[in-house]
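Internal QA ticket QA-208
Title: Verify multi-chain structure generation after dependency bump
Assignee: T.L.

Test input:
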Amino acid sequence: MKRFIGVISLLVCCLLSSVHGGLVPKVIVPEGGLSPQTEACISCHSMYTPGIVHDWMTSRHSKTIPGEAMKKLPIEKRISAESLPQSLQGYAVGCYECHSLNPDTHKDNFRHMGYSINVIVTPNDCKTCHPIEATQFAGSKKSYAHKNLMGNPVYHALTSTITGMRRFGNNQLLAEKPSEATLHETCLGCHGTNVERRGTKNISTKLGNLEIPDLTNWPNQGVGRVNPDSSTGACTACHPRHGFSIEVARKPYTCSQCHLEPDVPAWNVYRESKHGNIYSSKYQEWQFDSVPWVIGKDFKAPTCATCHNSLIVSPGGDLIIERTHDFGSRLWVRLFGLIYSHPQPKSGDTTIINNRDGLPLPVTFAGDPASEYLIDKSEQERRLTAMSSICKNCHGSNWTSGHFAKLDSTIKETNAMTATATNVMVSAWDKGIEDKTNPFDESLEQMWASQWLFYGNSIRYASAMTGAPDYASFKNGWWYLNKNLQLMRNWMDFKKEVKEKD
Amino acid sequence: MKRFIGVISLLVCCLLSSVHGGLVPKVIVPEGGLSPQTEACISCHSMYTPGIVHDWMTSRHSKTIPGEAMKKLPIEKRISAESLPQSLQGYAVGCYECHSLNPDTHKDNFRHMGYSINVIVTPNDCKTCHPIEATQFAGSKKSYAHKNLMGNPVYHALTSTITGMRRFGNNQLLAEKPSEATLHETCLGCHGTNVERRGTKNISTKLGNLEIPDLTNWPNQGVGRVNPDSSTGACTACHPRHGFSIEVARKPYTCSQCHLEPDVPAWNVYRESKHGNIYSSKYQEWQFDSVPWVIGKDFKAPTCATCHNSLIVSPGGDLIIERTHDFGSRLWVRLFGLIYSHPQPKSGDTTIINNRDGLPLPVTFAGDPASEYLIDKSEQERRLTAMSSICKNCHGSNWTSGHFAKLDSTIKETNAMTATATNVMVSAWDKGIEDKTNPFDESLEQMWASQWLFYGNSIRYASAMTGAPDYASFKNGWWYLNKNLQLMRNWMDFKKEVKEKD
Amino acid sequence: MKRFIGVISLLVCCLLSSVHGGLVPKVIVPEGGLSPQTEACISCHSMYTPGIVHDWMTSRHSKTIPGEAMKKLPIEKRISAESLPQSLQGYAVGCYECHSLNPDTHKDNFRHMGYSINVIVTPNDCKTCHPIEATQFAGSKKSYAHKNLMGNPVYHALTSTITGMRRFGNNQLLAEKPSEATLHETCLGCHGTNVERRGTKNISTKLGNLEIPDLTNWPNQGVGRVNPDSSTGACTACHPRHGFSIEVARKPYTCSQCHLEPDVPAWNVYRESKHGNIYSSKYQEWQFDSVPWVIGKDFKAPTCATCHNSLIVSPGGDLIIERTHDFGSRLWVRLFGLIYSHPQPKSGDTTIINNRDGLPLPVTFAGDPASEYLIDKSEQERRLTAMSSICKNCHGSNWTSGHFAKLDSTIKETNAMTATATNVMVSAWDKGIEDKTNPFDESLEQMWASQWLFYGNSIRYASAMTGAPDYASFKNGWWYLNKNLQLMRNWMDFKKEVKEKD
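Actual output:
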């Protein structure tokens, strides 16, 4: 990979330069160069979608011959395949190498300028060179993000209630179902849409009319997207096209696209933490592109990727923690309250859970965990120890254990504060003040949901990344956790009063 | 412009250096140097306001001889005048070149150390070298930002109601008019104040007493500022003094000063979008200073300026879109709901609108657009096509059309959700629960205003820059759009109950 | 300090390299090198906590021989001691130099590998080389941040009420006291915990079992932390370990860890101000490490540190303002409303205040300041003049005075709006609608607290850093200030109605 040979001006560039007379793309390619098919792609697309081509030109893909990349030391490899198809070994990773894979499984495949092209490159295609990553991802909650939301009747009730339209008639608010478009750009923006081919359509382009697949719920890069080849996920959720950069994925802005306040304020808390402060002040001097990633040398404070998925070694070369693309696999507890915080589920598919309320929720309404679907104490211990092994490169044992003890206490207390809100709501149900059929569509119920979804979650994230005290205090924290209970209590009285009068 | 010759130490520096013995400013100036007047300015101001002088020293102005700049290729020009006054052609653009223009129109002009100086440099002055930009700007809604707010009785009622003081007496909240100071630093901080000369005042400085113009509502750089020369606007709103940098204006932090949550969360949405993520992760490697701005080469993801106003070319040199300083001119729809989202108005002066309610609002209370004042379908189509031509450098036709189809749906739905809130409020008015005289001063009315001003707007901005799903969901999005309706419905009951008891 | 001589590979590195065969830390140290004790520390800790060691390697400490640093020009000195202990003069500032100081006062001292080591380095230890900074800090409100919060019965009631648990029983919300863990990660995250040694504990490490001090409320770097040597404060609050960088402290991300919305939105306002915009757009080109800090040359727009504590000179070398580590000492007014904005207190210890209500608050409930504990008009004038001397390097007199006149008006108006909310609440108390015993635990009271703690504060911060108009308007600003009063007024009626019915 360090043996780049030269600068090859693509034939097409010469052709184009005679047309445009101006700047033409020069692709710096490694020995071996581009495949003829990719050269053909670029010959048109450098004119029609030059942004894509130039972005790819900055990528490692455009400079890497997979056959050469296979020869690296295991710890330095960015490719995890044991062997590669012959056709991919000798050329740089270009347009055709990715957009032509597994055409038979791709309902989004179409004939395009003489080639058979998939519109969407899916995790199952990336798996050709990156099988370990794809397999880890496939078992993760992220991979099931669409199904876990839309296939769970409780969460589905939540999404339908809050994204559906309301009309006002006969003094009542009348509910409608949410549209596909609205689901697409709210919940499924992150969870991923269901992208299917519904037919073919004609578009007019600078090259004339083209016939292309007509896709539903497109564009979308949600992490649990259901793809036209039946795979799930979108590697581009974190490695945006067409740079596919490890640097971008390691910087916290990527995670911040979905993990943000008020429901999952991981990014907001990080930014205001000590770690986030050091990152923001000094990241310009750090290395975000090296594999393995050397703690203390490449970076001085963790980003999200450091703790959650990167391969980390010490400056002396000792392995600290292996890379993983199952993003929950280092976590012992799930801070995200549904409706209570709980041990991580065993399977990425959480629709299989069946708790003692008979619901697919990891915890019952009263706070009882569905333990057989959740990791046990010893697995929790194992993961806590592994995560702590990262912390301990910069922090003493006392520091680390003190930190996590505080988190334990906070999980218990925020769960108890959710239980209090649940008790207030149940009391309102029992008195007929609100109706329990849909637990998300009336005012007290929505205050109850805020208690765990916004306030409980914020406090737990703040605790987990100690140092952003306002998310635990006045900014969606304890202030609101308590204020909300007072409001609920008063609101119960107000509604009761109106009800009795009727 | 590339032919800088040397480093000229200003005479004054020598003088000053003998006094201060320390660091003295070295101004790198192009052939031709500074005018004698500007040298005189600097001789004092490098001591008395060194920050300004040093900031200007980093500017392109300090290194540019307009006469030379005129010779560039049209596509590379940053100056749009066909011809320039003789006096400005041969010197770098310094203090005197800008602060001495059009003195007769400037009520803020005063005699200062033997020169006739304007305190404020206005768009009409910048127009000397930048007439196209100044003229485009003059027709834009930004240029009318003060008038459009303060000259419209409905919006004026809003500003007065929310920024005016309240006293508590006789169990009632008694309203007062807002002060100039508070209007200045709330609404008019962005919309621009009315800066007039009310007289002259004496100030004591290190140089002794000076007599200077006494200005109202100063300082302010609101984009629609009414200037003492009767022009409107402040180029410094986006090109801050005294660097006047195109780089700063192209970075999103500039726009973020005014276009931010909860009412116009353009910046907040951008930052959390895929585009914003790529910007934040990689902008250090991009070029923000080049003219023309080359898509794919100078930058890999758009900033606000890319889509809304910059001159963009392809790496091959093809024109993608012309520069504009009429910031609405590429837009087919106005996402900002007043009270409903609507087609862009034809004129930057929106006070001329007269809808079927007889009000200067682009849409009636019931949702009926004042179409004769708004651009028509074919103009909307033309603008959508032009904007899409930028998208298509990195995205396929399918992607682009899918994106904008989603936006269309969201505009319709959020408008409908505003209509529902309007219907609830009208019902409250009809029942005598609240009083319609001022539609902004009671609780239900304020919930109604939140529906369109905060929640509807947030969702539309999130849709327009797809990829910041939380602004469409839990963060001022659909969650609140629906929750707010429930609260309004309950609040109506509560207030009715109290009313009936009285 | 400019006379670095060479690169010394630590003996330990050779030893370690034979074990690890990989990357080993090379410490670039100045002439004189590291003390034998510090070399011993590093020999193990470069293996066990390599992150710390590598962070320190990037620090100025690792490259500075204090004896040499003493010889600098006074204006360039970063060390303020007149003389130093002999033992510290000749070696770089390493682990042992800091962690071994004043062992007799340190209850957190323990025997560690043959050395007597303090777990926590406190301001009293840093004072050895930095006595002026430590002394200034010791007199500041920051140093009393723990005591001022927890030792004041009113604020203590606030913290207890909002961070304590609530249970629901007999239709009532029953209050419990907050846990140490929750206080630790909410209020005391910034204000500082009380760190005491409660005994000794055994931990198992890679080196075998170690006996270490068992500390309460650890880890914490709150700025008013109470340390085991009885000192208060944590220099690491702003100069994070182990880089101890002046650059980090001068960048606004450091201040943003605690000074953020909704109660103290200094960072949020700054980021959206003109100054913040210029910072974000251009800071990569500025110098954050130079002493003295040259306005206009090292930076073009202020960060928090510029106005509040750094030593600033002009490009000509003139002193503009002296460095201070008493962070309130340049301020004439305390924007933070308790419950009204007021002149800065004379003493950093605000628990000594006794106002005419008999409470340790700087202002009475009705708005009457406890003037004898607050700085007087002439001291206020003196500080305003000093602060303005910074502004005037980039802004004219007219500009500067106009800016601060606006702030004056805003302080008066926001205080009046707090008074209105107070009057509404008192009226509710008088009518028996809520109970005044604890002024923070009922809904109307919490709305009242929001009035000054969130909305009044936000508006004042926005005014003080003019240019972030949304924090004065729709984002926790005047919109909410007025809306909140309407809600309070309605809520009073609703609660009264329920009460009368009972």
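Spot checks passed. Chain C has a mean pLDDT of 93.
Status: verified.
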